[in-house]
Design goal:
With 202 residues, the chain is an alpha/beta fold. 30% of the residues lie in helices and 22% in strands. The strands form two sheets. The protein has a seven-stranded mixed β-sheet with strand order 5-4-1-6-8-7-9, sandwiched between helices. It has a two-stranded antiparallel sheet with strand order 2-3. The protein is globular and about 45 Å long. The termini are far apart.
Length: 202
């Protein structure tokens, strides 16, 4: 797979209602949560786009751009559309976007490598990761060919990532892990405490 044709996208536009503040700006062992995922993917792409509706901090890099949702309140699918439109509006040559959440501190480039190795881009236009019977709808690879369908369906009121992805014939890629869950995400204060314990047990 030609990584030069892929834009890395971190979705940080959520309201983090269950956590009580912007999760991407929470620190875990003195490191911003968003910087965990950025540090793993920064060398995998020519550019990374962060979708956030707030002014956020992150480890600076000339590779990283930020933008707000073109329409707020559409959930992750709105962030996907925003990234696709950003590519078109800025006349970029990317054909795919690879999406990541901002709240998974244990995801590594190794999982990304396995994901890409199992993908056949000639057969599908959308791919998600699954492990241990859990589908991770934010870890995805999306073809820009889906833009028109996505925009149309969002205007019709579609908001659920899983339902929309099924309608787009998503291919699910299974990835196993043996030790620390690389897909563990932090939604609550309790999850943050669990993350500390996971680090301590390394």
């Amino acid at each position: 797979m030609d990584h030069n044709k892929i834009l890395g996208v971190v979705l940080a536009g959520g309201k983090s209602q269950r956590f009580g503040e912007d999760k991407s700006q929470v620190k875990l062992n003195d490191k911003l949560l968003i910087d965990y995922i950025l540090s793993e993917i920064i060398d995998q792409f020519n550019e990374i786009l962060i979708i956030s509706n707030n002014q956020i901090k992150f480890k600076h890099s000339t590779k990283i751009s930020t933008t707000k949702d073109i329409i707020e309140g559409l959930g992750p699918l709105g962030g996907i559309l925003t990234a696709m439109k950003w590519i078109k509006n800025n006349k970029k040559d990317y054909k795919w976007i690879s999406t990541f959440p901002s709240d998974t501190p244990f995801f590594t480039k190794n999982e990304l490598k396995i994901f890409y190795e199992k993908i056949d881009i000639k057969k599908n236009k959308l791919f998600f990761i699954k492990n241990k019977n859990t589908r991770h709808n934010i870890f995805g690879l999306w073809s820009l060919d889906l833009l028109d369908k996505l925009e149309s369906d969002l205007h019709k009121g579609e908001r659920k990532v899983e339902l929309w992805a099924d309608s787009a014939d998503v291919k699910i890629i299974n990835i196993d892990y043996k030790e620390k869950d690389p897909f563990f995400n932090i939604n609550t204060r309790e999850d943050l405490e669990k993350a500390y314990k996971m680090i301590e047990n390394d």
